[in-house]
Amino acid sequence: MSTPSSRGPVAAAAGPEEFQPAEVVTLGETMAVLRSQHPGPLAHARSMDTGIGGAESNVAIGLRRLGVDVAWVGRVGADSLGELVLRELRAEGLRVLARIDPEARTGLMIKERRTQETVKVWYYRNGSAGSRLTVGDVPAEAIAGARLLHITGITPALSASAAEAVRFAVDCAHDAGTQVSLDLNYRSALWTPEQAAPVLRKLVADADILFAGLDEAAIALGAPHRPERMAALLAGMGPDQVLLKLGPEGALGLIDGSEYAQDAVQIQAVDTVGAGDAFVAGYLAELLAGEGPKARLQTAVRTGAFACLGPGDWESLPHRNELGLLDAAEGVQR
What we know:
Protein name: Sugar kinase
InterPro entries: Carb_kinase_PfkB-like, Carboh/pur_kinase_PfkB_CS, PfkB_dom, Ribokinase-like
Largest sheet: 10 strands, mixed
Order of helices and strands: EEEEHEHEEEHEHHEHEHHEEEHH
Pfam families: PfkB (PF00294)
Keywords: Kinase, Transferase
Shape: globular
Number of strands: 14
GO molecular function, one term: kinase activity
């Protein structure tokens, strides 16, 4: 990993693992999460659960549980929440290539379950350690040794330095012949559609694999269209594989010029936060395993369904030997 930049004292949190190649590298902000234990106004909650969450690390955990070796790159504060983030990611088997920033706090996400079916999310990430990601934090050698780099549209919205870090990571991937996977993941709390559109379009043009919801695709394209038309227009911008996440309606893929439709798995959702990240993990895991488009999409909707079965961004993600549980005829296994 590059030495710390001159912007401030930053200590590397990774050890020898940073020099070991991983199949996938991803980078972005992982935050601590506080969530109410029961439905109802947060103002009346008497206890809260702690956890972690972040789009890129959610995907990384999903991939790892499906047998893929993954490295996560990011920054955390020199605080207990940063320690929580690093401990949880390492416990999930990720290669953690992180820096501890003593001059910034770890970002925080708070989730309120107002009803059994609805969740409200607040972000406290302005000036956070994760938003201070720089080019100097990006391990070019790790990206060069990986098969795939996964990024999202969240990180460029955090700060100018984070946007530069993403740009540098993509350039490293292109130089090394590493595939680039992009999930648009638009966040209205971070920037407006007008601010996001040109940045997202540039990232789309540089991606080999693109994931998007319909609203996100409309921002990148400048206007909404039918899903099939959106997929074709996005593919025309550069990606060989375009995957549109359609929620309870499943997914649509335009993969190497051929169109594929995939129904969703019908479940009773508990918490849908993180379902899109789980979809990405399922698809990429099968791609890396050499599976065809149909198998990739089938696993993607299954991992997406698993993510909705319990509270939390990633805790319900399946291991590979659990993928068949959604088809189980018996509720009890012995």
